[in-house]
Amino acid sequence: MARDMQPIVKQSRREGYALHPKAHKIMARKSNPPGQHGGGRMGKPSLYLTQLREKQKTRRIYGLLEKQFAKLMSEATRAPGLTGENLLTYLEQRADNVVYRAGFAVSRRAARQLVSHGHFHLNGRRIDIPSIRMKPGDKLEVREKSQKSEYFKNLNDVVGNTSQQVLSWMKSDPKKMTIEVTGLPKREEAEVGINEQLIVEFYSR
């Protein structure tokens, strides 16, 4: 499975957005973009650059490669409704994002690893594809064998240290180690700081 192996802190500095909890502290000291000329003065960015950076930031927040993101954008364009909101809905419905949003991991990268290593059952069947799109009525549960691992034995510590927003479209039960999708994500419940209209404009060029 292809992955973006660039350091997450470097990506965060490039986008001006903390993509991982550990990036907050470093970005407090180094807020400029990475690279030899990252600290230099920059003029006002062009509209194209603004759109590009918004697309890159959103893609990296959710951990998608370029082809994956473009394919999802194409699907969002064909679907009824607002393209930008469709895109965010699809991103939020990914299995790895659902695991992260439910508080079962401290980051989307960690959640993606949990799913790809086969620690979850979806509606009773083992899955290892983080991009699976969850639908209302779907239920994720940690495999019985995985529940005995040190990570899941200490899951309450992970959940307790993860200040996640309470979402209307899912229910999580750390004690039973289950996550149930009860509806569709609302626009205001998506990741904060995303301007989806800039992304739509980028792909409409």
Describe the structure.
This protein is α+β, with helices and mostly antiparallel strands and 205 residues long. Helix content is 43%, strand content 9%. It is built from ten helices and five strands. The protein has helices at 8-15, 23-29, 47-62, 66-78, 83-92, 95-101, 108-116, 150-153, 155-160, 196-203; strands spanning 120-122, 125-127, 139-142, 170-173, 178-181. It has a five-stranded antiparallel sheet, with helices on one face. A hairpin with a 2-residue loop joins strand 1 (120-122) and strand 2 (125-127). The longest helix has 16 residues, at 47-62. The radius of gyration is 18 Å and the shape is globular.
Concise synopsis of the structure shown:
By secondary structure, the protein is α+β, with helices and mostly antiparallel strands. 43% of the residues lie in helices and 9% in strands.
- Order of strands in the sheet with most strands: 2-1-3-5-4
Shape call: globular
Order of helices and strands: HHHHHHHEEEHHEEH
Strand content: 5-15%
Main sheet characteristics: 5 strands, antiparallel
Average pLDDT for all residues: 86
User: What would you call the structural class?
Assistant: alpha+beta
What are the main properties of this structure?
single chain; 205 residues; alpha+beta; five-stranded antiparallel beta sheet; 10 helices
